[in-house]
Model the fold of this input.
Amino acid sequence: MTAATLLFLPPADDQPWRWWRIRDDQVEREGEGVPVRDEEVPVIAVAPADAVTLHWAELPARSPAQALAAARVVVSDATAEPAQELHVAVGGEKGGERAIAVVAPARMAAWLESLARAGIDPGAIVPAPLLLPVPEAGYVAADLPGQRVVRGRTSGWADEPLLTELITGGERPSPLARDAVRGAAVAAIAAPAIDLRQGAFARRRQRVVDWALLRRMAVLVGCILLATLAIDLVRILRYSFGADAIEAQADTVARQALPRGANAGDSARLLGERLTRLRGPGQGFTRTAAAIYAIVDAVPESEVTALQFEPNGSLRVSLSLAGEAQANTIKQRLAGAGFTVESSVFQQANNRLTGDMTVRP
Done:
């Protein structure tokens, strides 16, 4: 079922518009002037036959740009004006030759401007001769609102006595009955052979917001965000559980180093206290004794004969030296190493100097 409004553009500006209202595949109403708008019924404008030149040619069935370029070559051979300065429209592929329409760009712009002033944005602009049926042979003629047109198998034009006789070679076009013309027009707009609204004059598509698609995209984005958040949460929990496991393992190892009966309390604190007790106050026995041995070993003819570590962190060192020079050297080096040194009275016996030094941090 076809529903549309055919709006016939007048050949001259001083003539009125005429229209047919098509519904249920027949002309339901007709009138003059601007038709009453119905948003659900598309408006198809009919260009006057004398403003459009029609051609038919075999064009490459490839991209629209290639078909248009080939059509311009055909047009340039049949017109005195440069094809680039004309508006050329190419019909659809239906096998065999394709329709080519040529119209002045200024005329197209004027039609669209006048339609826009009337609040009409036509879905298509169809040349008037293409509303007539394709004759099996010869030519057919019919009266359309405001103009009489003639159509052949590969031609169409506004009926003028001298022009028609010249094109048909004297053959008289067969007139079409009123009902036949209207039936052919209904069939023609169902699948127009050509639409002049191409290229620079193509209808601008109104972008409609697909709210359902937007909702689906929002859901997908939300799922992606939730998945990302879940990944981060799992990673955080994994790190937390890992840290807890390492801490528990360290606590177990630390408690193994504690003496029996000392498991109550913080294992790190208890282990630190035990280490302090084992090491002793100050720098501890080990570090203090190591520093003393290193210094004494570096002084010739000097040796340590005894060590006594005190609870206050001091270390009493008994020395056997070759002479007083060695004693002074050791004392100076211990002081230089950051220790406080107190010397006892050294005694001479058997060509050796013996005495004690108390070393404190």
In short: The first strand starts at residue 4 and ends at 8. The mean pLDDT is 85. The radius of gyration is 55 Å.
